Amino acid sequence: MNHQKPFDIALERWLDDGPTIAPSGLGQEVQDQLSGRHQDRRLFRSTRRLLMNTRIAQAAAAVVAVLAIAGGAYWLGGQGSPSQVGANGSPSTQATFSAEATTSCPPTAGGPCSVPSQLPTPVLTIGLCLPSDVSARITTWDGATGHRIATVELRNDGSSACLWPTLDQPQLVDGTGAILINGAVAAAGDTLNLAPGDVVTTLVQDANYCRPAPIGPVTVAFVMPGGTGRVVAAPVSATDSDGVPPCTGAAGSAGDIEMHPWSR
Amino acid sequence: MERDLVLAASGGSREAFGSLVAGSIDRCYALAFRMLRDPELARDAVQGALLGAWEDLPGLRDPDRFEAWLTRLVVNACYAEARRERRWTAKLRLIPMDQPSAPDTALSLADRDELDRAFARLPINQRAVVVLHHYLGLSLADVATTLDIPAGTARSRLHHAIRQLRAAIDADSRPIPHSEDRPA
């Protein structure tokens, strides 16, 4: 706690408030529950813990399935040309593998030699989410000095995992689809792996709208890096226009809009 | 002393683990409460973390790292509680039920409310960094180590969180104007 800035002091005081002692009985509850639990002394403990994570377990199951399919395809198809196997019904998930037979025969060897076949190495790749895979909605608009801040949720409605860019180009749009404020174009960067049903959130902050009053409802849109897709968030209500920030600049001047990275 | 207790607990001594719990449960609860801002969720998180600690203690390689290891378990348990809570009450705004133990007159009630609301809006992983750094007093390097994330990620999360909290405090708590307040 070396910071002496007024805000840091205020924050630390706010954090210091509140309980510093656990509720009475909590320690005893833990002790009581220990009697029915055993310590995990197995080897590969970490594997077991990992598989308790639903997403990791699903990914592991997917890898096993892909391995089985790839292995089956390989043996059924003999040692011919490499094939490509895609996950059924999944537009954004595909598994590819390459099968290159390797030989240990020396070039000068004249006699028979063994040509060990090498099982293909599957590589599970998850593609970017399609706009049709996801839905977004604004849960609230909040006001700050000269700003409006939207809390936005984005959900993977698809049936397979996909990757969503942590940063997009945010836009404030009105009920006709007109762009009121355009944010900076996002470069391709980090992504979040969204399992089906996963929800991520972000905050979008806009400021300085100095043009004619828009037609509601006002909402935000997200253009994926490279313009590969665009998702428009459902507005808070059919007439909501709380997201229009006050004009703090010259008449007609461009507004500002930016977003925080999507996070869980 | 703690090292001996950790080694004994790791060997299966419930008594030793009980001593470890007694020595760390207040800190765990204080941390969980500040991340979750809800006494019941904090209670569940601490309970889950401590039971998980008992089960996984034989896997702790360095007994001297017990405190940091337990802190990470508590933070992970808070992540899980926050996800579970979010699933069922996505729109619920949490308000701390406990009154401040020692009201601080330097912070106005309005500031407190703004901080409460802004903090509740932060993603749980940003709250973790704020609490570890500003409440437990860990350096950003230690925060990164505790959370097993790169130092740059810890710095970025803290930056975003502080910016958001600062905006809340700086705001004049003005109501969002109606459409007639906007320029035509």
Could you explain the architecture of this structure?
The complex is a heterodimer of chains A (264) and B (184). Chain A has helices at 6-16, 26-34, 45-52, 54-76; strands at 84-86, 93-98, 121-126, 134-144, 147-156, 162-165, 169-173, 179-182, 191-194, 199-207, 219-223, 230-232, 256-259. Chain A is α+β, with helices and mostly antiparallel strands. In chain A, the strands form 4 sheets. A 4-stranded antiparallel sheet of chain A has the order 4-5-10-13, with no helix packed on it. A 4-stranded antiparallel sheet of chain A has the order 8-7-11-12, with no helix packed on it. The radius of gyration of chain A is 27 Å and the shape is flat. The two termini of chain A are 28 Å apart. With 184 residues, chain B is mostly helical. Chain B contains 8 helices and no strands. Chain B has helices at 2-10, 14-36, 39-56, 66-88, 109-121, 124-135, 140-147, 151-170. In chain B, α2 packs across α4 (66-88) and α6 (124-135) crosses α8.
**Assembly state here?**
heterodimer
- Strand portion of chain A, in percent? 25-35%
Structural class by sheet pairing and helices of chain A: alpha+beta
CA gyration radius of chain A, whole angstroms: 27 Å
Q: Can you tell me the residue ranges of chain A where pLDDT is under 50 for at least 5 consecutive residues?
A: 79-117
N- to C-terminal distance of chain A: 28 Å
* Cα shape of chain B: elongated
Compute the number of helices of chain A: 4
Binned strand content of chain B: under 5%
How far is the first residue's CA from the last residue's CA of chain B?
71 Å
Biggest beta-sheet profile of chain A: 4 strands, antiparallel
**Largest protein interface, residues of each chain:** A-B, 64 and 73 residues
Average predicted confidence as pLDDT of chain B: 81
Helix proportion of chain B: 55-70%
Biggest sheet details of chain B: none
N to C succession of SSEs of chain A = HHHHEEEEEEEEEEEEE
Percent of residues in helices of chain A: 10-25%
